[in-house]
Amino acid sequence: MQTEYYLTISLAIYDDRIEIASPGTCSPQITAENIKEPH
Q1: How far apart are CA 2 and CA 11, in angstroms?
Q2: Residue 28: how many CB atoms within 10 A of its CB?
Q3: Strands, E assignment, the chain
């Protein structure tokens, strides 16, 4: 498996939300169901 270290993560902050875009994958513990839960 090759890791692409030059890829960037983008972060956009709005009045009503934060958007994070990452070219990688999420940790296996993060799912579509639990991402909205309080952290």
Answers
A1: 24
A2: 6
A3: 10-13, 18-21
